[in-house]
Amino acid sequence: MNTISNCPICDHDAFKLFLKGKDYSVSQEFFNIVSCNKCGFHFTNPIPSEAKIGAYYKSESYVSHSSSNKGLINKIYLQVRKYTLKKKVDLVKQFTKSDGLLDIGAGTGHFINACQSKGINALGLEPDEDARNYGVSNFNVNVKDINELHVLKDNSRDVITMWHVLEHVYHLNRDVEKITRILKDDGKLIVAVPNMNSYDAKIYGEFWAAFDLPIHLYHFTPSDIEALFDKYNLKIDEILPMNFDSFYVSMLSEKYKGGNLMRAFWNGLLSNIKAKKGTYSSQIYILSKK
Ligand SMILES: [Zn+2]
After folding, report:
1. 61 CA to centre of ligand 1 in angstroms
2. Domain 49-289 adopts which CATH fold?
3. Per-residue pLDDT tens for 113-159?
4. How far is the CA of 239 from the centre of ligand 1 (A)?
5. Which pLDDT band, with edges at 50, 70 and 90, does 164 fall under?
6. b/e per residue 157-189 (b: at least 16 CB within 10 A)
7. 3 state DSSP class of 65
8. Distance of CA 123 to the CA centre of its chain
9. How far is the CA of 228 from the centre of ligand 1 (A)?
10. At what angle do helices 129-139 and 110-117 cross, to 10 degrees?
């Protein structure tokens, strides 16, 4: 286990315990989430070493998202993915010019595939070899190893996307710094992450599925996103809701809690109804250089 001694956002060195949560999907082990005494940022601490984290991703349901059609949650997931893919492509299309799009954490390549089919010049980077191979052999997508990130040229991409990826990144500041340099001066960085300030996060507490311990290293609020990217001279232009995440997260949270699906549906709905700007279950942040 690695103990984090400085806050990834403000570098302060004193934290308090926020909650002890369980890894419900793989190991059933418990992990701590701490909050920084100075800036209030919440992060998992300690975390498994980078070499050991792979084992915590090996949940059957995680793998089956890409292919299996079994189980109610997976069925819904696949339908929603189809719809949200279209929304994502519509969003990025308006910002993508000839220098194209870079998707970090491309997974099995569904998003890159959807971009390519709309004529967008798109490159994906993904650390997991199995996921990369799935994308390349199933839809011949342009997805390469994540280490390619460090050889991409500065000021070379119109749009960089990170769909539920930032919360998994080990070298947060190093990678954000690099990503900011790759982005063109008039480019857009699009980051989607779960929101700790959401209604579903508050009602599920330690059972909130989007804590996803230990693979979610950080648990962002909108002000954390603002503070992190401010260090690299980026500002938030717009925050968009991801309306389906509250349902999906509530379903998983109810499962962990031993609750029921009807309540999950109700809480997912309430989360969206109660959400004001900045308090949706998961949000898309559109950022640009100052
Ligand atoms: Zn801090």
Report:
1. 34
2. Rossmann fold (3.40.50)
3. 999 999 999 999 999 898 999 999 998 999 999 999 999 999 999 99
4. 22
5. very high
6. bbbbbbbbbbbbbeebeebbebbbebbbeebbb
7. coil
8. 18
9. 10
10. 30
